[in-house]
Amino acid sequence: MAPNLSLRNVVPSLCLLLVLIGRGQRAWAHDYVDALSKAILFFEGQRSGFLPEDQRLKWRAHSGLSDGWTHNVDLTGGYYDAGDNVKFGFPMAFTTTMLSWSVVEFGEMMPPEELRNARVAIRWATDYLLKTVSQPNRIFVQVGDPISDHNCWERPEDMDTSRAVYAVDAPNPASDVAGETAAALAASSMVFRSSDPGYSETLLRNAVKAFQLADNYRGAYSDNSDVKGGVCPFYCDFDGYQDELLWGAAWLRRATKDDNFLNYIQSNGKTLGAEDNINEFGWDNKHAGLNVLVSKEVVEGNVYSLESYKASAESFLCTLIPETAASSHIEYSPGGLIYRPGGSNLQHATSIAFLELVYANYLSRTSQAINCGNVYVSAQTLRQQAKKQVDYILGDNPMRLSYMIGYGNNYPQRIHHRGSSLPSVKDHPQVIACKEGSTYFNSTGPNPNVLVGAVVGGPGQDDVYVDDRADFRKSEPTTYINAPFVGVLAYFAANPNP
């Protein structure tokens, strides 16, 4: 889409155009509304269970319809977290929290049809999460044996691997998963408060129950021998369970305004390590997100007893601004992408951009700025920093590649995703057995099914991306990359030029 130029700005705009063309950069705006629509649509490709008639990605079909039968419980539904066919509860709960926070913070900026689609995506997860806490003093944390699943390359519709159910019973601890589930249910209760108050009430009631389970029996779920072999090394708790207790309490405080949860956050901040690892945010480490979330009460509500959370949030945000002395703590690729060692790097770019935009909203509503020592950082600066990450993901990068599948004309064709890479059951109704799928995995051809809206793990520190299905660290999409990106895109869909 060509920029809208006034006569007064024609000359400087032409100069800018020539500079951009000379650098090989895009010289037009991204279609953030289209990207938002696709980012939400992606979740339909990750659905497990009985698919509805209005399913839009038609190459998917019903799967996992007997999940939970070994424990005489219905555990159908929910999402496959990435390119495999396992339902991991820990990242699914975090995905749900971030989708809900996206709507809580930016839902009013979404086109009405996309707000509806976002609510549908959230409810697909919350319906499942309610099942995981349906029995007293027990939480179901996973469905599917990851070892047997990862030894096969097969469609979810053909699954013949073990659908083992992993549960944690009190007094064994599961503070991380239960705390994150409490956060997800509390945050989502706010999403449905006006559109479905009865469902909202159910979510909130179960959020409290999940939090009590998390707090009463403290410890990491992956320390339990009954589940450790299934959840590790994939979604072990690597960074401790304490942040999820504070995170769950913070969301319950936000959803209920109950001072008991405020007191919990105040009194447990130091003992639960709220000031630790403040520069991380993702499915395992909630510290940066926790600090931003709680800071709302300080910035907008003058609750100064939570000032330490605000100080930690702003310390983290200062590291993201290249002009500040603190910026040496954050790595960027030569092309400008936030980079952290490990796989699925774009999860950091989307979640950090989300936190920048949320905090920018706090600052805008109160006409404040952040003091980063040698510079003052405004809401506009935070938004501009976030936009750089968004535009990089959508194609403004050295590879000239959109890392969102189906967005633009140039995006990865060989993503690490079973359902996308194997023929659809609609086109190939015969079962493709466990090892028969290897032919498709090893193929150099493009995936036959486009997983529209999926954001892959992304390039390495050198900005290089090789379109290789086997390189799962770069080519595999995940729900927790997309979830915060929904909120980010909602903001820029309404405010393309911050």
From TrEMBL:
This is Endoglucanase. Gene3D superfamilies: 1.50.10.10. It catalyses: Endohydrolysis of (1->4)-beta-D-glucosidic linkages in cellulose, lichenin and cereal beta-D-glucans. Its EC number is 3.2.1.4. The active site is at residues 416, 467, 476. Transmembrane segments: none annotated. GO terms for biological process: cellulose catabolic process. The keyword Hydrolase applies. Belongs to the glycosyl hydrolase 9 (cellulase E) family. GO terms for molecular function: cellulase activity. Keywords: Carbohydrate metabolism, Cellulose degradation, Glycosidase, Hydrolase, Polysaccharide degradation, Signal. Residues 1-29 form the signal peptide. The keyword Hydrolase applies. InterPro entries: 6-hairpin_glycosidase_sf, 6hp_glycosidase-like_sf, Glyco_hydro_9, Glyco_hydro_9_Asp/Glu_AS, Glyco_hydro_9_His_AS. Residues 32-489 form the Glycoside hydrolase family domain. It comes from the Eukaryota.
